[in-house]
Automatic annotation (TrEMBL):
This is unspecific monooxygenase. The lineage of its organism: Eukaryota, Metazoa, Ecdysozoa, Arthropoda, Hexapoda. It comes from Eumeta variegata (Bagworm moth). The gene is CYP6B2. InterPro entries: Cyt_P450, Cyt_P450_CS, Cyt_P450_E_grp-I, Cyt_P450_sf, Insect_CytP450_Detox. Belongs to the cytochrome P450 family. CDD domains: CYP6-like.
Length: 570
């Protein structure tokens, strides 16, 4: 069909044909040797014989070339589709270019929910293969094997592999979540001490300040008597928390939905068709599109501007705010990041030393990770907890009774130690993250050839590994009545019955969430502040089983938000 279009070529297009050859000689001599001009497409199609007519012959060559180009493209989009077949791995049948992710690329289903659908087809397998575009994916189902991959054999699976190109990485994606190899290792080593209990406690007054503001906002909502989207409410609380603890600035997203910072948060997680298209191009043609940035430029410039402004205000020295900028400035004072390489070795087998400068862009990327890894996760988990409590009034009452009791010991003031004592609140939060984990799957990339223990299946460097967290959390093999909200599953007596490497809302192994305790404490503080003064109830528009947003790509989100009534407690 596309070759036919060339038949009606204008003179300028015809110039290009000159180099394709003609029928006079069946060689590649210029077209001017041919006597008959191109008339119209219909004439050309209907006028045989083919080789008595100069131009069709030339077009035949074009067509062959086109077909061979199409073949090459087709070959490129399907060349590895026998990968799992050859290894005898149970697998899904792929579609050219899309693999098994057609519904993900067309935003009909999120990767997490797509993972649940496929998981159910393999109830008795330890793993299965599939293709995300042209990317080979091995999904691990067996908890023992999950442990082997995430922990025991971490040296083969230290990468997350989210950057389609190994060396050309856009500045904001050089953050701890997206970074791989030596950059990841040096950042993780240096940043881990920033998340100790002492540092968390020092940061806590900033968190409490934001949590208390949730009460003011909820008060207005309660007085208005209308349903409030608690997903939006908790996103604003988390945005304020990230502003205060991450960027070192006070923003009022709770009051001002149009603040630039709130807009930045919304844009980062608004996965548009443009983003889906860019992602597909980068996945399928990583080299060709290596310089095409996944993040739109406004995200990079706004983050850089904010971080540089705050650092300049502090004269590039830590202040006494104890926020993330302070932690990074303190790290910078210690000089470059230096340490053993994770994958480069001397001939004697010892790792070589690597060194990376912690410049402004690299620091901004780490602040950005607060947004990238902390924002959506916390706001999704807290709002989903409120949703569950609204539909489970008895459990909500238990949570509130506990908050009242604990706070009465602490002069009715939220603080780190008080939150630590709210065990039932924590259980309700953990159960909500079981039903709807913020990250529905974990991801790793195979760094060197690896034979799966107990099998003769060997996978190559570059194969993507996924752990289907959402599906595991909902498997009746591991959780009785998995659809039910039962916080008691996480009570001190029963938590030990949960099989290891099945419940993983914060991931597992050396690449598990570095902000787990911060995320947990900040989430519980927001929930405690709200539920101390208010109750939540389903509104007419609330869905008991809300629908997962198909456009969410890494973290999960709810389509249409989570509308609830907020009512002042009697
Ligand atoms: C309720 C809140 C949170 C949840 C549910 C959550 C969940 C997760 C999960 C599932 C991962 C991937 C782990 C893996 O692949 O094994 C992760 C990684 C990460 N999270 Fe969180 N997170 C939360 C809050 C935070 C916060 C507040 C921060 C801020 C610092 C943060 C920073 C990170 C980083 C930097 C990583 C990448 C770690 C690495 O690759 O070394 N998270 N998180």
């Amino acid at each position: 069909m596309s070759a036919m279009i060339v038949f009606t070529a204008t003179s300028s297009k015809r110039q290009k044909l000159d180099f394709m050859g003609c029928c006079c000689s069946r060689t590649t001599r210029p077209l001017t040797h041919c006597s008959k001009p191109i008339a119209s497409s219909t004439a050309l199609v209907s006028d045989p014989p083919f080789d008595s007519y100069p131009v069709p012959c030339e077009l035949f060559v074009i067509r062959i070339k086109k077909i061979s180009t199409q073949n090459k493209i087709y070959w490129y989009g399907t060349k590895d589709y026998d990968y799992w077949e050859k290894r005898g791995v149970p697998h899904e049948k792929p579609l050219p270019f899309f693999g098994n992710a057609f519904r993900v690329f067309t935003q009909k289903v999120s990767p997490s929910q797509g993972g649940v659908e496929i998981y159910r087809k393999y109830p008795n397998e330890r793993f299965f293969g599939s293709f995300f575009g042209t990317m080979k994916v091995l999904t691990i189902l067996d908890p023992e094997l999950i442990k082997t991959i995430l922990v025991t054999d971490f040296v083969y699976f230290h990468k997350r592999g989210l950057n389609p190109h190994e060396t050309v990485i856009e500045p904001m994606l050089k953050n701890l979540f997206f970074a791989d190899g030596d950059l990841w290792r040096l950042l993780r080593q240096r940043m881990t001490p920033a998340f100790t209990t002492g540092k968390l406690k020092a940061m806590f007054p900033l968190i409490v300040e934001r949590a208390v503001k949730v009460q003011d906002f909820a008060d207005n909502a309660a007085k208005s008597g209308t349903a409030v989207d608690v997903r939006d409410l908790m996103a604003r609380y988390t945005t304020d928390f990230i502003g205060a603890c991450g960027f070192g600035i006070n923003i009022d997203s709770l009051e001002d939905d149009e603040s630039n910072f709130r807009k930045l948060g919304k844009r980062i997680f608004n996965f548009t068709y443009r983003d889906a298209f860019v992602l597909m191009l980068k996945e399928v043609f990583p080299n060709t599109f290596k310089n095409l940035n996944f993040l739109v430029s406004e995200i990079e410039t706004t983050t850089m501007h904010l971080v540089q402004t705050v650092m300049k205000q502090r004269n590039y020295k830590p202040s006494s705010r104890n926020d993330v900028i302070d932690l990074l400035l303190a790290l910078k004072e210690k000089g470059n990041l230096v340490g053993d390489s994770i994958d480069k070795f001397k001939p004697d087998g010892t790792p070589i030393q690597t060194e990376i400068e912690l410049d402004d862009a690299l620091m901004a990327a780490q602040v950005f990770v607060f947004f990238a890894a902390g924002f959506e996760t916390s706001s999704s988990a807290t709002s989903y907890t409120l949703h569950q409590l609204a539909f489970h009034p008895l459990e909500q009452k238990k949570v509130q009774d506990e908050i009242d009791e604990v706070l009465s010991i602490y002069n009715n003031k939220l603080c780190y130690d008080a939150i630590k004592e709210m065990k039932y609140l924590e259980m309700a939060f953990l159960e909500s993250m079981r039903l709807f984990p913020s990250l529905g799957y974990l991801i790793r990339k195979c760094a060197k050839r690896y034979t799966i223990p107990g099998t003769n299946v060997t996978i190559d460097k570059g194969v993507t590994i996924t752990i289907p967290v959402q599906a595991l959390h909902m498997d009746e093999k591991y959780f009785e009545d998995p659809e039910k909200f039962i916080p008691e599953r996480f009570s001190r007596d029963r938590i030990k019955d949960i099989k290891k490497y099945v419940y993983m809302p914060f991931g597992e192994g050396p690449r598990a969430c570095i902000g787990e305790r911060l995320g947990l404490m900040q989430s519980l503080a927001g929930l405690a502040a709200l539920l101390y003064k208010f109750s939540v109830e389903p509104a007419p528009s609330s869905l008991k089983h809300p629908v997962s947003d198909p456009t969410s790509i890494i973290t999960q989100n709810i389509k249409g938000g989570l509308p609830l009534y907020i009512k002042a407690r009697a």
